[in-house]
């Protein structure tokens, strides 16, 4: 069969090589900015972080020193309020979609969740401003938390649903077959089986909203001073970074980089901690 | 696919307990198994089950309620501006808060141009990376590259902006823009003074930000293409490129399109990084070097300063437009992606 062993034409071989090269080049071009951003962030950030940055509140312009302690704590508070709203609602609707699925209503919820996930964060900011800030008459940590919580719901709901759907039906049947009522079977058997994935999903949603700035601009608003009250404007790391980055002062630029590094570390640590905890829990269960 | 224990188990269990199950079927289909074992607590469990189900239903209703509230609030708060300007809001090109004259055309133009520029840069790179990861790269690196690309998506917008201001803008200002204006200045797209900050910088940072979205969805879709398709084309003597073109990309094009539209949705709504880089000037300029303004960034910059009702309502109307556009864009994208991945994954699972 001479036709089968005929060598490839030069044009086809060249085109093949050319294309493979371009794909590899694309990979390099995509990974380059990531390296550049992380490298520069670590380089600039580590040079600017010191103890005062972590323990002091901002100083007025022109005075050296000062830090973002209030913004770090403020971010934690706003994120805590957000998680208290977003995690239960997200997991709840995820369970409903997975366990009582099949109806048209569930398809509508799933679709709405996906679309809600794509709504710009700035629009969430305006809506929460209208919903919470206007009735309350002033900016507050609470409204910032509501904005972040709303943004967490669709992500958590969809990952919870996906993780629960991966639990084999035989496990549900075994639980129900033992006579366990459905609420217990769902919570203590199905959800527990999928808990690792559900927690990871919640953590990813947390990490995603931790860096959100736009929805906080007119809800949490930011604050130069120390404040822990949920009904008062509160400082948040992303807002502070934004304000310092667009300022004309070198000292503030330096602090913006330090803040950015803290923010990234916060996000990475949150995700990594959950990975460690969930994998350890699994090992204990296996042992 | 729905996995409902009650739907599959009901006939099985009611076989054992026809009378009790039939009685409970009407009230609470979920508690079929309960009466058989714990007769005394069956009533409590019935109510608990009902309560459980309805509280979950309430949770899931919150998703729809939030969406509804968004539309309601934004529509009612922008009434003033809608009544005042009508359709002229979208074609007016003056934005004068002092005179109370508001037209959104410069922002719509800025959003469109920056997003399209971002797509132009991001799509070839994202599809290239996805093809590289799924088809070409050694198995060892597959997970690493995919993870690293996902990591790009985890960086907050404000940090992209920060990096843009201090690294990208000087780079554009000193190196890229002089070169572009020398080579392509005659087109008019790369003319004028090179500030660094402007439409081009915004487009580039947006491209970097939407690459992970397009790449991860494209990867998902490419993986869903059945292996037999690749093998068939390879068996006919195709080169790798021909295999990718004929078997993979052609089968996956609807899903890739969905990913691209999803990326577009993100680019349209992206706020912080763009606000920090686009220059924030409400003008319509042909050159990509010129500063511009987008719908999202005008809200971010001016919302908390808007004092009179008309100004605020005009900004909310821009938000409403942004909401409607992104909802439509995301709905289209989701339908496209679903049509591809669901079809295949269902078949693979079967």
What topology emerges from the helices and strands here?
The complex is a heterodimer of chains A (287) and B (350).
Chain A: H1 10-48, H2 51-55, H3 69-99, H4 104-117, H5 121-136, H6 141-165, H7 169-177, H8 182-193, H9 195-210, H10 214-217, H11 237-245, H12 250-286
Helix pairs in contact in A: 1-12, 3-6, 3-9, 3-11, 4-6, 5-6, 6-9, 7-8, 9-12, 11-12
Chain B: H1 5-16, H2 18-27, H3 34-37, H4 42-77, H5 79-85, H6 88-91, E1 95-96, E2 101-102, H7 105-136, H8 139-154, H9 157-184, H10 199-224, H11 227-235, H12 240-269, H13 272-277, H14 295-302, H15 309-349
Antiparallel strand pairs in B: 1-2
Helix pairs in contact in B: 1-2, 4-15, 5-15, 7-10, 7-12, 8-10, 10-12, 10-15, 11-12, 12-15, 14-15
Description:
The complex is a heterodimer of chains A (about 290) and B (about 350). With about 290 residues, chain A is an all-alpha fold. Chain A has a domain at about 70-235: MetI-like (MetI-like fold, Orthogonal Bundle). Helices cover about 75% and strands about 0% of the residues of chain A. Chain A is globular and about 70 Å long. The relative contact order of chain A is 0.14. The model of chain A is unreliable at about 280-285 (pLDDT under 50). Chain B folds into two domains: about 5-75, no CATH class; about 90-350, MetI-like fold. Chain B is built from 15 helices and two strands. A two-stranded antiparallel ribbon of chain B has the order 1-2. In chain B, α8 packs across α10 and α10 (about 200-225) packs across α12 (about 240-270). The longest helix of chain B is centred in the last third of the chain and has 41 residues, at about 310-350. Classes of the chains: A mainly alpha (about 290), B mainly alpha (about 350). At the A-B interface, α1, α3, α4, α5 and α6 of A face α1, α3, α4, α7 and α8 of B.
